[in-house]
Specification:
Blueprint: H1 3-10, H2 18-22, E1 28-32, H3 36-45, E2 50-55, E3 59-61, H4 66-70, E4 80-82, H5 83-89, E5 93-96, E6 99-103, E7 108-111, E8 116-118, E9 121-124, E10 129-130, H6 138-141, E11 143-144, H7 148-173, E12 183-188, H8 192-212, E13 221-226, H9 238-250, E14 254-256, E15 261-265, E16 268-271, E17 276-278, E18 281-284, E19 288-289, E20 307-309, E21 321-323, E22 328-330, H10 339-357, E23 371-377, E24 380-385, E25 390-392, H11 394-407, H12 411-431, H13 452-465
The protein binds flavin-adenine dinucleotide (FAD).
Flavin-adenine dinucleotide binds at residues 32-38, 54-57, 60-61, 63-64, 66-67, 98-99, 125-127, 145-146, 192-193, 291, 293, 325-327, 337-340, 342.
């Protein structure tokens, strides 16, 4: 019997279908988080362990295309896949539940529903969430874009506000309202997510609005991107950064570089310079940190709350717990919080788990940089490969499109995403075709920013009853 297996027999696997596992002598690995990092572990763990995947959602999300959902180009189901099905394909079990605590000495994890599950090895891959860097009002008034729910909420608020603006414009044309109204959208953060979102919104305004919302003059919708550094896309080379800024400007986005934000208010942003800018909808895309809940796990945390890992990706001070992906950071050279590091770390952690179970020493992780890419809009993207090659324009955009479709999980998602993206890029300016929003009832759990029909009515009410307007009659 190998050392780790001996330990398992000393530890009852608490409160989880032990009967299903008791016949097996294989050690149990719990993988927490069914994103890029967690899923990458599964093939490596297969056949050697009993693997249980835990996630607080019943699905896995392809975050790189969330901005397409938020801008009504893709359906939420295009970027999500059943976690149960994906885990099952790799011979793992899935448990829907939220990790709330870790008892490293007793080798159990606690879930929000009060249950406890024993493990022999634990791999944490719980991802990141928005970092607001202490900017007043940002958490309360800005929307974030890290989850599928965030994307749906943002899309529905956007469409709701466009509906409101359309109603105002219609009423204005009929002579019943005193002003045309406008919609100002501010995106905070000029890295890939901010650039992609700004480009996508500008494109929606320029191409889809005329047919989807004929009542609105596109000049009534303003897309603003605010970045505190002097350039966009900091990890890219200077020529690509300049290209991205020029492409956004060409699409009519108002790009404000070297502009720090001091406070976010419900309908405004206050700049460090003291200037206040009106903003109906502010989206925070300025950085990430570990989810605050990670603070309760009793593990060492470093910058932005990321869990500190040793060179083999084991959590510092722990011999059976690994952390991978956005949540993890080596003490010296933290990797960027991107899909490739998460995938490679996940595979490595799983291989080290095998080594430990086989009584072998672990080996250090080394990251193989494959490059980075970001898209601005149709026919426009930037690609920077690790060996130094740089691409931009249509060829880069086709590379971006191909890679995202290939890496999207599930054939059905690939096909539906291909159809929806083709529709978006080829047909939007002919017949609209925005992916529609949901009813308010679908947002019962969406928190304070829930949008949809509610936002439309509220926006219309505010415009129509605001100063200089009519009596709120639509
Ligand atoms: C809008 C957006 C666009 C992006 N675009 C790109 C891009 O173009 N290219 C790129 O390389 N990277 C991109 N990224 C980054 C990339 O998506 C992440 O680096 C990657 O998803 C990290 O993988 P992960 O496994 O660490 O976490 P995730 O993929 O975030 O997975 C974490 C999982 O853990 C689950 N979870 C969290 N907390 C708990 C808990 N307490 N209990 C149980 N389950 C929990 C979550 O539900 C989730 O399923 C983007 C990210 C965002 C948000």
């Amino acid at each position: 019997m190998r050392p780790s297996e001996r330990a398992t027999t000393e530890l009852p696997i608490a409160e989880y279908p032990t009967t299903e596992y008791s016949a097996s002598q294989q050690p149990q690995v719990i993988v927490v988080g069914c994103g890029f990092g967690g899923l990458a572990t599964l093939k490596e763990l297969r056949d050697r362990f009993r693997v249980l995947v835990l996630d607080k959602n019943g699905y896995t999300t392809f975050q790189p295309l969330l901005y397409q959902v938020a801008t009504a180009g893709l359906a939420p189901s295009d970027v999500a896949c059943s976690a149960r099905a994906v885990a099952g394909k790799c011979g793992a079990r899935f448990r829907h539940g939220e990790l709330t605590g870790i008892n490293a000495a007793g080798r159990t994890v606690s879930l929000a529903d009060g249950s406890q599950i024993g493990y022999d090895y634990l791999i944490l891959a719980t991802g990141a969430t928005a970092a607001y860097y202490g900017v007043a009002g940002a958490a309360a008034h800005a929307r974030s874009l890290y989850t599928r729910r965030d994307a749906i909420t943002l899309r529905d608020e956007l469409l709701g506000r466009l509906d409101g603006l359309a109603a105002v414009s219609q009423a204005g044309r009929a002579g019943r309202a005193g002003r045309a109204g406008r919609l100002v959208i501010t995106i905070v953060g000029g890295n890939a997510t901010g650039v992609e979102l700004a480009g996508s919104l500008a494109e929606l305004r320029n191409s889809a609005l005329r047919t989807a919302y004929p009542e609105i003059d596109p000049t009534q919708v303003e897309v603003r991107l605010v970045e505190q550094l002097p350039e966009l896309l900091a990890p890219f080379g200077p020529a690509l950064r300049r290209y991205a800024a020029a492409e956004l400007a060409e699409r009519g986005a108002d790009v404000r570089l070297g502009t720090a934000i001091k406070e976010v208010k419900s309908e405004a942003i206050l700049l460090a310079s003291g200037e206040t800018l009106h903003s109906d909808l502010t989206v925070w895309a300025a950085g990430v940190q570990a989810p605050p809940a990670a603070g309760a796990w009793g593990l060492e945390q470093g910058e932005a709350g990321r869990i500190v890992v040793e060179s083999d990706l084991r959590v510092r001070g722990q011999d059976r717990i690994f952390a991978v992906g956005d949540i993890a950071a080596g003490a010296e050279h933290p990797l960027p919080q991107l899909a490739q590091p998460a995938l490679q770390m996940g595979r490595h952690a799983a291989r080290q788990t095998r080594r430990l179970a086989d009584g072998e020493p672990t080996v250090p992780f080394s990251y193989r940089d494959k490059g980075i890419m970001a898209t601005i809009g149709r026919g426009s993207a930037v690609v920077q490969l690790a060996r130094g090659q740089r691409l931009r324009g249509t060829i880069a955009w086709l590379a971006w499109l191909g890679l995202h479709l290939v890496t999207l999980l599930g054939n059905r998602n690939r096909i539906s995403a291909l159809i929806n993206l083709s529709w978006r890029y080829l047909a939007w300016n002919h017949g609209g075709g925005l992916v529609v929003g949901d009813d308010q009832a679908d947002h019962a759990d969406a928190g304070p920013h829930a949008g949809g029909a509610d936002a439309a009515q509220e926006a219309a009410r505010r415009y129509l009853t605001g100063p200089g307007n009519g009596a709120g009659v639509l």
